[in-house]
Design goal:
This protein has two domains: about 1-105 and about 290-305, Rossmann fold (3-Layer(aba) Sandwich); about 105-280, Rossmann fold. The chain is built from eleven helices and twelve strands. It has helices at about 10, 15-20, 40-45, 60-70, 85-90, 105-120, 125-130, 155-165, 220-225, 240-250, 290-305; strands at about 1-5, 25-30, 50-55, 75, 95-100, 145-150, 170-175, 190, 200-205, 230, 255-260, 280. Helix 6 (about 105-120) crosses helix 8 (about 155-165). The longest helix is centred in the last third of the chain and has 19 residues, at about 290-305.
């Protein structure tokens, strides 16, 4: 029996997990993955294995169909985000499949808070300046009393809210499952994009769906406060990057910290690279030793159960 692993954080720590598979007589297919494999690469690889631990790859109907025509018996999506996986198609084909929710709320929230502080105080710009011989002293803004439009109030969003509130910030929460007027944990609830003009920061922590693709677009940014700072630790396509670039050029957006992008890795020609006021990440918000171990253990537990090798 063989298991395909296409999740980069798990692959980078695979020596720790190999004994768990070997003890069950399972061999591993561990391709070199920077961020994702292509659909064509997956169609070639997935049918050769009985199990698949999925990263951010395009786990489409076509990929699952190829897998079912081959050896594939079960799959598990590693991590929290599930927008890349066609769960309905897998279930229609009788393929046992699951994911690992509630794994990284604290870890991603730590990164989000770090980005908020970084763009508030220009910390990365200071570092860059000193490295080339300068001694920059940009004027930042204080966090206390500032308003944050926090989009998404799941595990990650709630953890971000706690950190923002601890910094004495005012938090406006946007989540379709919450009713305006309901104020959990000292936050205020609003309907997107109402009241965005009040916010000094827009922080995205929500899942990507068909409905919220490009939810942060030119129209919303135009209605935001001048110089608003944008943080995205969720999914790249939540933001219309062309609109964000235009807003950065005009000064409507004062700074942005982006851990995720519409295309990953970020293309070398992306205009986002031009802006000193941008902090650019590598879709790495969940990647701590502790978080990777926790999610990998859960993914293996689920997959072993599906394959009957507990």
């Amino acid at each position: 029996m063989r298991v395909l692993i296409t999740c980069p954080p798990m692959l980078r720590n695979l020596d720790e997990f190999r004994p768990r598979f070997a003890a069950r007589g399972i061999g591993l297919e561990a391709p070199a993955v920077v961020q994702t494999l292509s659909e064509a690469e997956l169609i070639a690889l997935v049918p050769t294995c009985e199990g698949w631990i999925i990263g951010d790859d395009p786990a489409t109907r076509a990929v699952f169909a190829a897998g079912r025509a081959g050896k594939l018996k079960a799959a598990v999506k590693w991590g929290v985000g599930v927008d890349n996986v066609d769960f309905a198609a897998a279930r229609e084909m009788g393929l046992p499949i699951a994911h690992t929710p509630l794994m990284f709320g604290r870890e991603v929230a730590d990164v989000a808070m770090g980005y908020v502080i970084a763009v508030a105080r220009g910390l990365v710009a200071i570092d860059r300046g000193i490295r080339v011989g300068g001694w920059p002293k940009p004027s930042g803004i204080s966090l206390a009393g500032r308003a944050v439009a926090l989009v998404g109030y799941g595990d990650i969003g709630r953890n971000v809210a706690r950190r923002l509130l601890a910094s004495e910030m005012r938090v406006l929460v946007y989540d379709p499952v919450l009713d305006p007027g309901y104020a959990p944990e000292d936050v205020e609830v609003a309907r997107w994009p109402e009241r965005v003009g009040e916010a000094d920061f827009i922080v995205l922590t929500c899942a990507l769906t068909r409905e919220n693709h490009h939810m942060l677009n030119g129209s919303v940014l135009a209605g935001a406060s001048r110089g608003v700072r944008v943080v995205n630790v969720a999914r790249g396509p939540l933001i219309d990057e062309a609109a964000l670039v235009a807003a950065l050029r005009s000064g409507q957006v004062g700074a942005a910290a982006l851990d995720v992008f519409e295309e990953e890795p970020l293309p070398s020609e992306s205009p986002l690279r031009q802006f000193e006021q941008c902090v650019l990440g590598s879709h790495n918000g969940s990647n701590t030793v502790d978080g990777v171990r926790r999610a990998s253990e859960r993914a293996m537990e689920l997959l072993f159960g599906f394959l009957g090798v507990q």
